[in-house]
Amino acid sequence: MARLSEGVVNNNNQVSSWWMRDGTFLRLKNVELGYTFSRNVMERIGARNLRVYVNGMNLFAFSKFKLWDVEMGRNGIGYPVQAVYNLGIKFTF
To answer: Does the pTM of the predicted model rise above 0.70?
Structure first.
C-alpha cells in the first residue's frame, strides 16, 4: 500500500495492474445492403439500371468496457468514432 512519507518508500514504486481494464471489443465497421431491380421493372420505367442501397460505418461495438468508446483509448478524452448512415438510389437511363 502506498504511504505518504518524507523519505523513499519502496512500496510506492511497485508496478500494479489495479487500474487496467479489459479493452477487448468487436466493432461492426462497414455494412452495405442493396437491391437491383429486375429487367421487367426497369423496362417499364425506361431505365437501364435501378438500384437502391443503404450502408453504414461504425454501426456498433460489443465490449465489456462501458466508460467511453474503446477505440478512443487511454483516458477517453477526444471525439468518439462517428457512426455514418447513407441511403442511395442509382438510376441509369
So the answer is: no
